[in-house]
Amino acid sequence: MILFYILHNAPGGPLAPYLQNPHITQADIIRLKHNFGLDRPVYVQYFAWLGKVLTGDLGYSTSNSEPVLTAILERLPATLLLIGSSFVISLAIGVGFGIVAALKPYSAIDYIVTTFAFFGQSMPVFWFALMMQLAFAVTGVTAFGYHIALPSAGISSLDEFNIGDRIEHLILPAAVLSLLGIATWSRFMRSSMLEVIRTDYMRTAAAKGLNRVQVVFRHGLKNALIPLVTIIALSLPSLVAGAIVTESIFAWPGMGRLFINALGQFDFSLLMGYLMMVSVLVVLFNLLADVAYAWLDPRVKYD
Amino acid sequence: MATTLAPGALPAPIIEDEIQIERHGVWKRFRRHRLALLGAVVIGCITLVAVLAHWLAPADPNFIDQAHWSGYPLAPGVAGHILGTDENGRDLLSRLMYGAQISLTVAFFAVLMELTIGTVLGAIAGYYGGIVDYTIMRITDVFLSIPLLPLLLVLTAIVAASSNKASLGFGVIVVIIGGLSWPPVARLVRASFLSLREKEFAEAARALGNRDGRIIFRHLLPNAIAPIIVQGTLEVANVIILESTLSFLGFGIQPPTASWGNMLANAESNMAIAPWVAVFPGLCILVTVLAINYLGDGLRDALDPNMK
């Protein structure tokens, strides 16, 4: 609500694109303002907006000349593809690294994993993106006799859909976006697994004569993953933020890039709609995490 | 000793003694953490360079070397530019030094603000509980539910547009970052206050008739300070990344003022011919943030051995 107020008092405002058009007179502006209800008090507008949001109407995007919901939904699949693939990569590598490090604590491999995690957490996403572009797209890397040169921007180089081409375009942005997840989750997985390994039921499982792989994966993994669920749900905001940066660098036509464009053009309803949707997603994820937590760990009870 | 005792002054000598012992242990544990020590040294060096940038920098950060510059970045070593120049012919090393000034100052003050707001709100919520706690925590939840980066971007864009200035003062960035990133601190402080207020010494302080403000700041806060210090250190690293991201996207520190983030903003277009322009500022961010994260990790182990 505070956000709504500030956005409304910003100069330029939702009609900025029209103000720059010399064919539109002052009278037209006043008429437009009245038609959009922009001359009403801010609080009236807020409740009008809130009412519309509840019925699924997020307003009209002035910079894209289409309804906000359409504009966002149009870009949603691209963003979901990017975030989704990074999510899978981070989860697989992060959990894998964490387990490997926890199985041999304070060994060389543990050291490598923890150092990598520290680097990953300290890496500015946009710089990592630039360096990846520099290494794999601008100059290209020659490895094993092959010259690897990946596309540095866009989502496809052809008009029609081609799965190989899409994957080629996806590699760099997804790798960049996964780094933070891999780093955070592997560190967390390591400490969580270390705790589980020390428990009595793990010793019991080993004493029953199960081999190490069975003990770790059948008995250990499920219990070690429980606290990870919360961390994963809480890292959604950082994924969204990372997607904004990654999409704008790699020219990925998703929600993040739409947001940055709208920012430059002061497209008020789109910014509001974006923040709204993202916040709802975050709350939803937290709720989901709580439910998953209770389901995975029967000791947790909510009243 | 005076005839009338100030409330709470009686056990002072004993506490002093205990703190001495405690401090000794902290330093011992911290020293064992070699990477944290290294991190502290690195941060010290960077801070020193930032403070002395005016005397250390080989050139004015905004001076355009027109004698040698021909429209493209000069390579490292050419015409006395140790790290080369950027796309406008300005000495990269000097800009990095001045950029350190900006990035560190913004981070320091933003975190200071963040810690102040977070600590005060968290302390009040944790100490009073009930409806006060509920109200403050709901506000915190609202702030936490909106991802920080998009919110920061929107606010800085608005401020930049409404002030109608080409350059956004770094004070504005500090206030916006500090004013929005306090919720995690508030939660942390609240959690420790919830348990601290039940302790006997808090009871004793209350029984002696201390005012609430005195109990909160003189009796409870010193006992909750360890996690705040750790969180604050790690937050400095976060804020450096946040500020540089904002500046990189064009909504933070505005050129010509150098910041590590905005130095990278134009580096992308020249990356094929001048990779050094893109490499060095990012390397500075990475090294600084890494050093701070290691320091924070070491501090956590030293100050609060029970914390994970």
Keywords:
heterodimer, A: 303 residues, mainly alpha, two-stranded antiparallel sheet, 13 helices, 73% helix, 3% strand, B: mainly alpha, disordered N terminus
Q: Please, what is the oligomeric state? A: heterodimer
Tell me the fraction of residues in β-strands of chain A, as a range. Answer: under 5%
- Number of helical segments with 4 or more residues of chain A: 13
Return the string of H and E elements of chain A.
HHHHEEHHHEEHHHHHH
Strand content of chain B: under 5%
Shape descriptor of chain A: globular
Taking the sheet with the most strands of chain A, its summary is: 2 strands, antiparallel
Low-confidence stretches of chain B: 1-16
Portion of residues within helices of chain A: over 70%
| Overall average pLDDT of chain A | 75
Radius of gyration of chain A: 24 Å
Global Rg of chain B: 23 Å
Structural class by SSE content of chain B: mainly alpha
> Which runs of chain A of at least 5 residues are low in confidence (pLDDT < 50)?
4-22
Strand adjacency order, main sheet of chain A: 1-2
